[in-house]
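This entry is listed as follows:

___
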Amino acid sequence: MSEDFNMSMRKFLKQVGVTSQQAIEEALRTAEGTTGKSYEAKMVLTIDGLDVEHVVTGTIKAAD
């Protein structure tokens, strides 16, 4: 793949990671009684114009 492709992909993935972490942290800060609880999470990636739907699931545990 080209250098432009690699750079645009890295920029997009960095934005996804940073903004997703911020959203999760904010949700945990504003919710009550989250200490030590675990939450099932799902991230869905779709790309317009391509036949792509990629799903990542996992568990996020709030701080004790």
User: Anything to note?
Assistant: Strands lie at 38-47, 52-61. The mean pLDDT is 95.
